[in-house]
Amino acid sequence: MIEITNLTKKTGQTIAIDNLTFSVTSRECLGLFGHEGAGKSTLLKLLSGAIKATSGTIKIHDTNISTHPIRAKKIIGYQPEAALGHGNMTVKNFLGFIAEVRGLHGLQKRKMVDRAITRLELWRVLDSPIATLPAGHQRKVALAQAILHDPRLLLLDEPTAGLDPLQKQKVGTLIQSLAEDMTVIVASRNPEEFSCTCQRALVMAEGRLLADAPVSELQRSSHYYQAITLAADAPLDLLALAVLPGVAGIEEDRHTAGSVTVLAMPGQIIYPHVNALVANRRWKINTLSLEPGRLSDVIHHLSQEALN
Amino acid sequence: MKRLPVIFKRQLSSYLSSPTTYLSIATFLIANTVLGLFVGNFLEKTPENLHAFFQFHPWLYLFFIPIISTLLWANEHKDDAFCFTSTLPVSALELTLGKFLAAWTLCALTILLNFPLVITINYLGVADNSTILAQSIGSWLLAGAYLSFACLICVLAYNRLIIFVITLALLFAVSTAITSSGYVGPSGAHLADR
Predict the structure, then answer these.
(1) Structural domains in chain A?
(2) Tens digit of each residue's pLDDT (9 = 90 or more) over A40-63
(3) CB-CB neighbors (< 8 A) of A102 in chain B
(4) Distance from A96 to chain B by nearest Cα, in Å?
(5) Taking CA atoms, what residue in A is nearest to B94?
(6) Which superkingdom is the protein from (chain A) (predicted)?
(7) Beta strands across the sheet bearing A14-24
(8) Any idea where the domains of chain B sit in the sequence?
(9) Widest CA span of chain A, in angstroms?
C-alpha cells in the first residue's frame, strides 16, 4: 500500500507538485497522465526518493521514505525518463553492478540478471556500451534494471518512448504481467498505450491532481465514447450518418481520406443504426470500429479547463 | 556499509577504463622522473632514497589530483544521471567514501609505479628502503588530503573544467601554505634539517 499525503514540491518560486493526496493498493497498476510539465516525472522522482519533498509524507508499505530512505529504496524499482549515466559500461556489466547494489550476489545475481535480460530481449546488445545503443534499447536497459530485484513498487517514466510499435506492444504486455506481482505506477504522455494496462488513472496538470478515477470511467466521459469510426475508399454520405438517431456529430479525419468518426450523444448507442445504414446503402467499408473512448481527449479537456 | 565495496569496485573500474587515467598517470611519472633527475639532482644529492623525486609530489599533485577528480562524479553529472543514482539503496556516505577510496587507490597505484627507481637504487648502491617506504606513505597521505579537497569541489560544481580549475587553485593555495610553513615534501627532509 502506497500512501501519499499532502505532498508538495517547490523549486524556487515554482510549485512542481501541489498538495497531492492519494493512495495505491498492492498489485494495482496506476497510470499518471497529463501534458508535458504536468508534474508526472517530478512525482515519480519524489516516490523513488531521487528528490526530497518540500512538505507532505510518502509511505511505501508502511515505510516513510523521508525517515527511512534506504529501506524504502530497496523495495522500489525506478525507470527514469532521462539517461542512466554509466554510458561507457556494457549492458551486462551495468546490470551486474545494479544487481550488486541491490544486494544480489553469486547464483542469485546471475539468475536475476539473466531473467531481466530474457524479459527485455537484451541478448544481442549485452556486450555493447550503453551510450552506443539506440534510444529504444537504452529504454529497455532502464526497464531491465528497474525490475531486476523484484521490487514491490515499480515506477516507470515514459517506458515506451523511443520504442517501435512491436516493442511497445511487448513492453505493454510485460508491464501487464508485472502488475500481477507488484504495484506499478506508469507516467506517460500517451495514455492510449496504457489504457488496457492500467486499472486506474490520475490526471495531472501544473502539479495538481485533476482526476482520480478508473480508466474505464474516464473513457466513458470522452466525447468519443461509443463513437463509430468508418473508413471507406469511396466518399460516404455524411448527411445520412448525421441524421441517424443518437448521433451527436461527425468528424472527418484530415490525415486519412475516407475516414469518418460518428459521435454518439451521451447515453446513446448508435452502433446498430450505423450498421443498418451501411447494410442498406451497401457501402464498401474497409474498417468499422466501436470506440471505447479516448483517454487523450479526456486529459486534454481536463488540462485545458484547469489552465483556464 | 555493505554497498561500499560495490561502489569502490565500480569507481575503480571506471577509472581503469578511461584513457584519461592512463594519460595522467604516465604524465605524472614522466614529469616526476625528469624533475627528480634534472632539477632535483638525484644522482648528486641523496642516491640512497627518493627525496629528489618525492619533493616534487606536492606540485605534481596540483595537476594530477584535479584531473582524476573530474572523473570522480563524471557518470553522475552526465545528463542528470545523479537523479537515478539517488534512487539506489546506497547511502551518501557509502557513495562518497567508495569513490574517494577508489581515487586514493589510484594514487597508491601511481606511487607504486615508481618501483623501477627503487630497484635502480637497490641495484646501484646502498638503499634506505625504510625511508623510501615512509616517503611513499607520506606522499600517499598527501594525495589523500588533496583528494578530499577535490571531493568537496566536485560536490559544489558539475562542469569538469570548473572542477579542474577550482581544485587546481585551491590545491595551489594549500601547497603554497605548506611550503611557506617549512614543509618541503613527503620525504621528511624538513625533520632532518632541524
Answers:
(1) 2-220 (3.40.50.300), 228-291 (3.30.70.100)
(2) 999 999 999 988 999 999 999 888
(3) 88-89
(4) 10
(5) A101
(6) Bacteria
(7) A14-24, A2-11, A55-60, A63-64
(8) 4-188
(9) 70
